[in-house]
């Protein structure tokens, strides 16, 4: 399962710099945990239920400069219990497709469809594991983001910021990053477009990706392309 631009943007954008303990739910190959390790001095736990993905994440963590701060937990997040006061930062690019055509590959279906981890269960896990002043960031398609907005108060969580993610300035948002907190209050909004024209990133996207990408194309695409 390849690394996606949307997941990379979540890792580059989420304001984790001051976090002390971070949890990456459904780490897969460890992408978000590695972003968080590069951007903070936090201790980071990454939970993954798929054995093969967990093995790959362990290898990636061990090969990184931050191996001493990264821990892999091979488990279902619904079985985790808070350690101390919990986490002040939680990152999640969850299996988010609802009632869509299942993937023929069982492992990809587990990673992409929320049958095995419904949003209600995910929100309950976040509520249990998040400390009082913590923040959680979820990357979701637009319909599932609406579902989280509606369901989060029942879990004691409120959406306090939304990042609307577009492929380009002419396109409607295709993903949202929701920032969840324990305290109710107003919800602010920001927007970002990934591309001027694929594969040429907007300046805003390039500024986020530059510390992590080895190559970037930035600005308007040449007319001849």
UniProtKB/TrEMBL annotation:
<keyword id="KW-0808">Transferase</keyword>
<dbReference type="Pfam" id="PF05175">
    <property type="entry name" value="MTS"/>
</dbReference>
<dbReference type="GO" id="GO:0008170">
    <property type="term" value="F:N-methyltransferase activity"/>
</dbReference>
<keyword id="KW-0489">Methyltransferase</keyword>
<dbReference type="GO" id="GO:0032259">
    <property type="term" value="P:methylation"/>
</dbReference>
<protein>
    <submittedName>
        <fullName>tRNA1(Val) (Adenine(37)-N6)-methyltransferase</fullName>
    </submittedName>
</protein>
<dbReference type="InterPro" id="IPR029063">
    <property type="entry name" value="SAM-dependent_MTases_sf"/>
</dbReference>
<feature type="domain" description="Methyltransferase small">
    <location>
        <begin position="15"/>
        <end position="100"/>
    </location>
</feature>
<keyword id="KW-0949">S-adenosyl-L-methionine</keyword>
<dbReference type="InterPro" id="IPR050210">
    <property type="entry name" value="tRNA_Adenine-N(6)_MTase"/>
</dbReference>
<dbReference type="InterPro" id="IPR002052">
    <property type="entry name" value="DNA_methylase_N6_adenine_CS"/>
</dbReference>
<dbReference type="InterPro" id="IPR007848">
    <property type="entry name" value="Small_mtfrase_dom"/>
</dbReference>
<dbReference type="GO" id="GO:0003676">
    <property type="term" value="F:nucleic acid binding"/>
</dbReference>
<dbReference type="GO" id="GO:0008757">
    <property type="term" value="F:S-adenosylmethionine-dependent methyltransferase activity"/>
</dbReference>
């Amino acid at each position: 399962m390849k690394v996606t631009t949307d997941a990379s943007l979540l890792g580059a954008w989420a304001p984790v710099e001051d976090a002390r303990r971070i949890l990456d739910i459904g780490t897969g190959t460890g992408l978000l945990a590695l972003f968080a390790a590069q951007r903070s001095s936090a201790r980071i736990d990454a939970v993954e239920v798929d054995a093969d993905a967990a093995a790959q994440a362990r290898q990636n963590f061990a090969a990184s400069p931050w191996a001493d701060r990264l821990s892999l937990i091979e488990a279902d997040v619904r079985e985790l219990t808070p350690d101390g006061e919990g986490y002040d930062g939680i990152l999640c690019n969850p299996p988010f497709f609802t009632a869509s055509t299942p993937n023929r590959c069982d492992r990809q279906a587990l990673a992409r469809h929320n049958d095995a981890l419904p949003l209600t269960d995910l929100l309950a896990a976040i509520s249990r594991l998040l400390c009082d002043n913590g923040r959680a960031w979820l990357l979701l398609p637009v319909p599932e983001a609406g579902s989280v907005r509606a369901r989060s108060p029942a879990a004691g969580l409120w959406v306090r910021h939304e990042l609307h993610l577009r492929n380009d300035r002419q396109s409607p948002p295709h993903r949202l990053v929701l920032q969840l907190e324990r305290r109710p209050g107003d919800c602010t909004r920001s927007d970002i477009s990934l591309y001027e024209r694929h594969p040429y990133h907007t300046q805003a996207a390039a500024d986020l990706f530059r510390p992590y990408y080895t190559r970037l194309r930035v600005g308007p695409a040449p007319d001849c392309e």
